[in-house]
Amino acid sequence: MAEADANDTQDSNNNTPAVPSKRVLGWVKLIQWMLVISGLLMLLAGLGTSISIWHWSQAPIAGSAAGVENHVENPNEQRVRIEILPGQSAQRTARELANLHVLQRPDWFVWWLRWQDQAHLIRAGEYDINPQWTPLQLRDALLAGANVRHPFTIVPGETLTQVRQKIRELDNVRQTLSDEAWLTLGDRWAELGVTPFLEGWLLPETYFYQAGESDWQLVERAVLAMVATLNQAWLASNEGQGLPLKSPYEALILASIIEKETGVAHEREMISGVFIRRLERNMRLQTDPTVIYGMGDAYQGRIGRAGLDTPTPYNTYIIRGLPPTPIAMPSAAAVMATVNPDQRDYLFFVAKGGGAHHFSVTLEEHNRAVRRYILNRN
To answer: Where are the transmembrane segments (predicted)?
Structure first.
């Protein structure tokens, strides 16, 4: 019995868990504290990074003189132009901005874009970058697309040949149209009533385009503007009611003649009235700009008797009615004047200098005006 008790006592002692020594407990506590301190340090580091990123995101992209270690100087704070090519990476874009002294933290900006999964959304084109933008503003600009717009102006009275040459001289426009294509370019908008030959169909005004646009895109903008202007004028006249004009295109032809005849704004309706009454009475229009247009390269600054006597589809001293096409690009004001002619009885006019004209009701009065202003005889 005593032996059994002894064995039991021994087994009981063997099953009792060992108590860790004080040294071991000390190491455990030390490790626990180290983990806590490490976590706090990581939290503080993360918080510090977040504060730094937030501060960076609110500051100008070029940096500021106070508190920035490597300040990028751009004393005039002028916008800087940059061209981003198709497929260009965010990293290359940021590096170019840094080289231009616009972006002070290019690596941060790229990381920020990637973190937002937007680095691949930067769009090609030309941009004017403001060094005082924040990274958020820079990002929004690069994702929205090119913000540089180039002006292109069509002057009232210019011909299609002149406008075409202007477009061909634009270095930042893709030239896709051959000489042959220009002759029938209007077919692209035939459903809108545009004729294949585009003389008269480009509304004179200033348009803005982005580098890389094609020549026909510029033309399209001007054509659509003219279509809208012409349709508005035609509808305002109850589709030419009371006018000797059969279609909007005839109104466009007459508007081009009015545009070439005067540069004085208040005379447009008066010139329109003269031509409208002549058409109503089946009188020849007898207008020099149409003759000049029909002469083409043969015109060297003077019509002469030979020019007046040479038959062409545009010689309104010989033909009756309107020429077959417009002779220039008429302004919106000229288009509106066409369908709103002056109601006085004038049938003649002659230039009296300074771009203005003398208007007459009778041929006798007109001849006196010709002697006075053209022949310099009283």
So the answer is: 30-56
User: How would residue 301 be classed by pLDDT, with cut points 50, 70 and 90?
Assistant: confident
329 shares its domain with 188? yes
Whether 121 contacts 168, CB under 8 Å: no
Alpha helices in 16-146 (DSSP H): 22-58, 90-99, 106-115, 135-144
Kindly state whether residues 332 and 242 are assigned to the same domain.
yes
The Cα–Cα gap between 247 and 245 comes to: 6
Work out the angle at residue 320's Cα, subtended by the Cα atoms of residues 302 and 242, and round it to the nearest 5 degrees: 120
Domain presence at residue 63: no
CA pseudo-torsion sign 116, 119, 125, 131: positive
Instruction: State the chain's mean pLDDT as an integer.
Output: 86
Q: Report yes or no on 154 lying in a domain.
A: yes
Tokens coding 6:
């002894």
- The secondary structure of 44-70 as a DSSP string is HHHHHHHHHHHHHHHS-TT--SSS-TT
pLDDT at 171: 86
Separation between Cα atoms, residue 168 and residue 296, nearest integer Å: 21
- The answer to whether residues 170 and 254 belong to one domain is yes
**pTM value?**
0.77
Residues 226 and 92 in one domain: no
Q: Say what the pLDDT of residue 24 is.
A: 63
Strands 80-84 and 125-129: antiparallel
User: Domain boundary residue among 144, 163, 179?
Assistant: 144
Closest CA relative to residue 328, chosen from 198, 206, 221, 205: 198
